[in-house]
Amino acid sequence: MRIKNHKGWGKTVILGVEMHGSQLSLNPYEFLRGRSVIGTLFGGIKPKSDIPLLAKKYLDNELSLDEFISHELSFQDINKAFELHQEGKSLRCIIWMDH
């Protein structure tokens, strides 16, 4: 991952994660000039309070998530689900335990 180098100050927000093991290279001088870097995983939600709220909104049909599901596979095909995701061929996959 590379952060564009612009003179001045500002905040860089890193969303999600890069490929496992990749490193982020930063110039320490940028921090001395007022730049900051923060990260967020899952958009910064608070799991204890936000996930039950989102689940309720989904169950009450106030939140539409079904169009984000690209595949549904049985548990026996779980390795296929990982392959699809790593190849960029799957957005979200549901793993059915009883199929």
TrEMBL record:
Coiled coil stretches, renumbered: none
GO cellular component: cytosol
Keyword Glycoprotein included in the entry's annotation: no
InterPro entries linked to this entry: GroES-like_sf
Any one GO biological process: formaldehyde catabolic process
UniProt GO molecular function: S-(hydroxymethyl)glutathione dehydrogenase [NAD(P)+] activity; zinc ion binding
Keywords: Metal-binding, Zinc
PANTHER family, sorted: ALCOHOL DEHYDROGENASE, ALCOHOL DEHYDROGENASE-LIKE 2
Subunit structure as annotated in this protein's UniProt entry: Homodimer.
Protein name per UniProt: Alcohol dehydrogenase
Organism: Quercus lobata (Valley oak)
